[in-house]
Amino acid sequence: MAAAISVTLVFTITPWSIVPTLVTKDVTVIAVTDYGCVGESILGRSVVVPNCVAEVDDTVSATFNIPAMEVNGYLEELENRIPMVNDWDAKVKGTGTTP
């Protein structure tokens, strides 16, 4: 029973939010090194672009992995629910005890 529940949870919840997704985005070069350029994407990720001949502040295309939750709207949905949770917390009165 526990194995069935574990498999169900793994295949319904986990992969769609944390599995790395390959994305290609334009990045702004913030440094040039011997092994390539270091750029920052609009997603706030630092990315190394090998064999890059760009200058600082140039824009280059980079392909990199990022957790799926950062590009599929999962984090935005969680942020949208925070006011609902805060409102519910404000209405709860009393103290709770644990057995």
Detailed description of the structure:
- The structure is a single chain.
- This protein has one domain.
- With 99 residues, the chain is of the alpha+beta class.
- The relative contact order is 0.17.
- It starts with a helix and ends in an 8-residue tail after the last helix.
- The chain has three helices and four strands.
- The chain has a four-stranded antiparallel sheet with strand order 3-2-1-4, with no helix packed on it.
- The chain is elongated and about 60 Å long.
Short description:
The protein is built from three helices and four strands.
Summary tags:
99 residues, alpha+beta, 4 strands
Number of domains: 1
Poorly predicted tracts of residues: none
Distance between the termini: 27 Å
How much beta, percentage-wise? 25-35%
Indicate the topology.
Blueprint: H1 2-12, H2 15-18, E1 20-33, E2 36-41, E3 46-50, E4 59-67, H3 74-91
Antiparallel strand pairs: 1-2, 1-4, 2-3
